[in-house]
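ok so for the tutorial part 2 we go from a plain amino acid sequence to predicted structure tokens. step 1 is just haveing the sequence, like this:
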Amino acid sequence: MVRSFFGFFLGTFFYLTRFRFQVVRANWERFVPHPSRFLIMASYYHFGCLCCELLLLPLGRLKQYVLKHVTVVGSEHLLAAHRAGRGFICVVAHSGNWEIMAAACTLKFQVPLLIVTKSIKPKWLHRLITRGRAQCGVQATYEPQTMRDILAAFKRGDAIGVVLDQYVGPPVGVRVPFFGVPVGTASVVAVLAKRYQVPVLLIENWRSFSEHHIVVHPPFVLEQGSLGELTAQYVGAVESAIDRHPAQWLWTHRRFKGNLGPLESGEWDLRARV
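step 2 — the prediction. this is what the tokens look like for a chain of 274 residues:
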């Protein structure tokens, strides 16, 4: 397939030029001791494929790609959450291709999706990507209006997409284990799930040679607990999804920042319960 062909050469280029090599190696060493060259090169191959796929957004070709090359398992969970009419949250990782996953929700099942993300620079690229997402029925929200847009989406019964493997520091982040390292993570999913009683679904995706595969998992059981405990539950599920296709995680991502020391006694209990 063309994507795999160019992904191989682009990934090889990034590997040979040592693009963020120290970040990639340090991330891998948190996942497995002494990662082999094969594992590191495999992650660069998938990074090359990701770069090729992301070009489909500004080129306005993502819709055709999704309709032709994406398969979905577990769509009944997505549709049931949508029919409930209270809105719901989809948690995902920087694995496979999250833009393809988001577009598949809207194009294949007509489930409106609002993704929580950041503005892209430069502005001309931001406009192109926003237009490409809109062609697939995907909307995005940015600070400072994120919470207002999320609550409006809940009222419409729409889905919210949150990538839960990004660093978020205090006061809106809580340290939870990721690859065994306590690191700041957004607590917003736990806050919204408890305060508004909306379901939370894990969606994972990965690429094979010629297709993208998406699995929608059943909703998490909403339990009592601190924001840290609930966030750790969600992150644990995200980590398990990464474990199933480890080379496809975004190893170039600077995930581990801030205080990476051990969790202190009672650290989660000090956080407000909602």
